[in-house]
Amino acid sequence: MSDTNAQADAGAATGTPAASGERMTGAQSLVKSLEHAGVTDVFGIPGGAILPAYDPLMDSKQVRHILVRHEQGAGHAAEGYAYSSGKVGVCMATSGPGATNLVTPIADAYMDSVPMVAITGQVASAAIGTDAFQEADISGITMPISKHNFLVTNPAEIPNAINEAFHLASTGRPGPVLVDISKDALVSETTFRWGDELRLPGYRPVTKPHSKQVREAATLMAESRQPVLYIGGGVVRSGSADKLIELAELTGIPVVTTLMARGAFPDSHALNLGMPGMHGTVPAVGALQQSDLLIAIGTRFDDRVTGHLPSFAPKAKVIHADIDPAEIGKNRHADIPIVGDAREVITELVEAVKAEQAAGKVGDYEGWWRQLNEWREEFPLGYDEPHEGVAAPQHVIQRLGQIAGPDAYYVAGVGQHQMWSSQFIQYEKPAHWINSGGLGTMGFAVPAAMGAKVGSPNSTVWAIDGDGCFQMTNQELATCAINDIPIKVAVINNGTLGMVRQWQSLFYNERYSNTDLETHMIPDFVKLADAYGCHGLRCTSPDEIDATIEKAMELNDAPVVVDFVVHKDAMVWPMVPAGTSNDLITVARDLAPAWDPEV
User: Given 24, 28, 35, 71, which residue is catalytic?
Assistant: First the structure.
């Protein structure tokens, strides 16, 4: 063995990031590059094309690899990790089906701006394009759903690709980046060179806003009479929740937080009107509809918020601030467009508002607040208790939030339980609410909760899942049990695909085609939990809810699964039917809209 190779092997054994100039394989270079990037946790599954990377990975003292049971679980775990840790999540898979199983979490991360790096093996470069065994053009497949991707066939390019991938994933508008590495690049020898030089000439995200536009925004805010701070997930991603509180309190302008921004502004704050959108609060939806000025920060005017776009906020001028210039004007014309990082935008806006106020220009919102408070009093969030002695799902989720408290992380799947979790848990801190918003991915909760727990091991992490979602990815409970990742899972078990059943009730004459899961019988979730090495609990009546949650909170030596058997006909209200105007928001079935849009 040569001296240089012996030195490289010694570096691998100690886990010390290799110095530039050492000789090693591309696979060793990949592991060393991950160490230089500060990676401590990777979620993945080995396979033929990526296998060369798993040998040196075994020797790393810095990088912990968590062997998941499905590649989709690896991707969602990387997302959950990114949410709770604030760092880039990392997942790894082999070529072909391993890589394509990452497509859903990559698309999910892209829609919700989650910083993630996905590393995949690829067939040998000479076989690319030949339909070789387990070959898939994962770069081509993910091009529309990734922020960027790399196909690396030269081992010398691995460090630069990893360095640039982490930079791209975590700067500007965060998102997923794919690094696909051919097998021959992993097994070939190279000279390791890690440098901070980035070869991204066309990538210069604008973070500092234009001061003139910020001043114009402050003037418009003072002149308006019915303004709303319309806050999206970009405020969470930028870490600007503290500055948002300062801006809101300085101006007295009401705040609405989208599904992705729950917790960006404390629910307990008097200025918070709640969540807007299809299942938002009446005050939040009404405030946007009847506003004369929307101050939209870190949000993209998603269709779940706007409803029928031409009828959305018809009287409002728009200030739209976002770090991604492609979002500004995409769905709604912006009277004042501001490109920049949300934290820098809000910081400068605070100073501009102070200057306006010093000049005697202070917004008068007294009449506006009278209207908003009337809606608050008339249309509070609520639910009906079933008469059959079965628990209301809203009650279960509300008590879960009250008992676990605001320091816990809450990770939801997709469907009715997701909406109830956004409505009936009080969020006081940013990034403590984790869900699949843009893509709406069933099966997100369990693996994302696993990743969130790895990212914040000293925090309580609850996955709130439906019985449909839970059966898509519950195999990751084995990963949690084996790797000492004690998440807690609340299965809201109504025996049906609840949100689909709700739509069938409202729009398909109660014709329940293929929505009955019969999960009150098959499977037995308590026995399933036991089989996976977890604690299994069941709650079947309202008077057992608190004791069951408290018991789950006490069990921290292994994952906990709680089967909450709930009423199957509970619905999510308020509701704006898809594709209709927000003016048609109703608070219960067969009731008239909450207000007359002509008034």
Answer: 71
Q: How far apart are CA 183 and CA 181, in angstroms?
A: 6
Looking at the structure, do residues 219 and 244 belong to the same domain, yes or no? yes
- Residue 182 belongs to what H/E stretch? strand 176-182
Distance, in Å, from the CA atom of 69 to the CA atom of 218, rounded to the nearest integer, reads 52
For the question of residue 378 being annotated catalytic, the response is: no
Is residue 71 part of the annotated active site? The answer reads yes
CB atoms within 10 A of CB 375: 20
End-to-end CA distance of the chain: 85
Q: 596 is written with which tokens?
A: 């007359």
CA atoms within 13 A on the CB side of 312: 23
523 and 415 assigned to the same domain: yes
The set of long-range contacts for 575-580, using a CB threshold of 8 Å and a minimum separation of 24, is: 575/278, 575/279, 576/277, 576/278, 576/279, 576/285, 576/307, 577/506, 577/507, 578/278, 579/307, 579/308, 580/307, 580/308
CA 527, CA 535: separation in Å to the nearest integer?
A: 9
Cα Rg for the chain, rounded, in angstroms?
A: 25
Domain with residue 305: its CATH number is 3.40.50.1220
- The question of whether 344 is a catalytic residue gets the answer no
DSSP-derived 3-state class of residue 434 = strand
Residue among 32, 183, 453, 488 flagged as catalytic: 183
Catalytic residue among 58, 61, 133, 507: 133
Same domain, 459 and 529: yes
Average pLDDT over all residues of the chain? 95
Please write the tens of the pLDDT for every residue from 387-418. 778 999 999 999 999 999 999 999 999 999 99
Shared domain check, 302 and 164 = no
Respond yes or no: is residue 183 known to be catalytic. yes
Selection from 57, 26, 56 nearest residue 41 by Cα: 57
Report the candidate in 535, 562, 558, 485 with the shortest Cα–Cα distance to residue 81. Answer: 485
Strand order in the sheet with 148-152: 64-67, 41-44, 89-93, 116-122, 176-182, 148-152
Give yes or no: residues 173 and 292 share one domain.
no
Q: Is residue 201 part of a domain?
A: no
Catalytic residue among 499, 502, 571, 575: 499
507 and 551 assigned to the same domain = yes
My answer on whether 41 and 184 are in the same domain is: yes
Instruction: Count CA within 13 A, CB hemisphere, residue 104.
Output: 20
Expressed as residue numbers, the domain containing 425 is 393-565
Q: Of the listed 134, 371, 426, 475, which one is catalytic?
A: 134
CB distance 319 to 220 below 8 Å: yes
pLDDT, average across residues 300-325? 97
Which stretches within 359-466 are classed as H helix? 366-378, 393-404, 416-424, 445-455
Q: What is the pLDDT of residues 359-388, one digit of tens each?
A: 999 999 999 999 999 999 999 999 988 877
Question: Two tokens at 229?
Answer: 């701070």
Sign of CA dihedral 134, 74, 64, 113: positive
Cα 386 to Cα 566: distance, rounded to the nearest angstrom: 9
Residue 523: is the preceding peptide bond cis (ω within 30°)? Answer: yes
Query: 329 with 433, same domain?
Result: no
Mean pLDDT computed over 30-41 = 98
Q: Say whether 361 is catalytic.
A: no
